[in-house]
Amino acid sequence: RPSFLRSSPHCNDEKKRKMHFSIPDTSEVEDESGRFTTYNIYTNGAFHCSVRYSQLLQFSEDIKKEFGTEGLTPFPRKKLKFLKLTPMEMSERREMLEKYIQSVSQVPQVARSALFTSFFLSAQQEAAQQEAEAVEIDIYLAHGNKQSLYVMSTDQTEDVLEAFCRKIKLQDDFVYYFALFLMRVHEDGSEEMIRKVQDFESPYISLKELSEDYRIVLRKWYWDPAYDDDLWTDSVALNLMFVQAVHDVEAGWIRATKQEQRQLSGLKAKKSKKEYMQLVRTLKHYNYVEILPCIADFPVEGIKATVSLGPSELCLEVATKSVSILFLPSTLSLLHVTESQ
């Protein structure tokens, strides 16, 4: 596989690659071998897999052998078999395992490695009890059209992405300017961006574990509009960007005045895709991702707001006032977002 297909051009900044891993709880499992504890691993708030301590111990040893331990949180030591952990010790081990996984995921060369991807992909397959089999998965474009793709149920994300891009005849050079995203369609037709589907998961398994109102959608995967000009040279890439821009304008994710909307409607009717894109990329919130209305505690507690993520800022728009509050990523350490009821 050519090296240029392995990362998106906007991901040179390693801070943008990081995932948040957590182990909020454990489960007690019993099988023919006996009773044991599994640790439930979540990525960006979504359940990914359950693994035993022994699996994580082997993983840590493999990491140490291949990459060393620099920059990693110490792995919790193994206890003698006949000594059962107390509830407090179990909680401490869970927290230490969580910190270890978080530290591993923050080391770029580890997080991008085949070892890392293989471990978490296999763990997801095991947790879902998914055997490898030929399956059909629907991949949607931004405007709602879908194409069915035959893959193996255990194929990882980059394999599914490449297979879909081959099917729609997108040039190889442009494949990783796009990515697969998990989205939810609500009863009123509104759409919610959930998250990017990661390379260490199977899109089929991730989607199967959710309800029918979720779907896998192909969207752009870069912030800098300077890359647009390169993609516009390819008719397939231009069409993908066009249908996404039309969707984002009509959904209100890209802000347009009434006059701008009329101009865009005229260009859309004439199928002037490049001219449409030239205009739309000058508009507010082009290349932003919008989150559904939420409850914020700034500027006052309990206020309704809309959060948008842009190339170099987080924008909080307060619902009751015509106010836009910008946060630079360098000023943020933690942001809690609570969905509006």
Write up this protein.
This protein has 341 residues and is of the alpha+beta class. It is 32% helix and 26% strand. It has helices at 53-67, 87-105, 108-111, 114-128, 157-167, 203-208, 228-231, 235-250, 258-269, 273-280, and strands at residues 21-31, 34-43, 46-52, 134-140, 146-152, 178-185, 191-196, 214-220, 289-290, 294-296, 303-309, 314-318, 323-327, 338-339. The strands form 3 sheets. Strands 9, 10, 11, 12, 13 and 14 form a 6-stranded antiparallel beta sheet that branches. A 5-stranded mixed beta sheet has the order 5-4-8-6-7, sandwiched between helices. A hairpin with a 2-residue loop joins strand 2 (34-43) and strand 3 (46-52). The longest helix has 19 residues, at 87-105. The radius of gyration is 22 Å and the shape is globular. Residues 1-17 have low confidence and may be disordered.
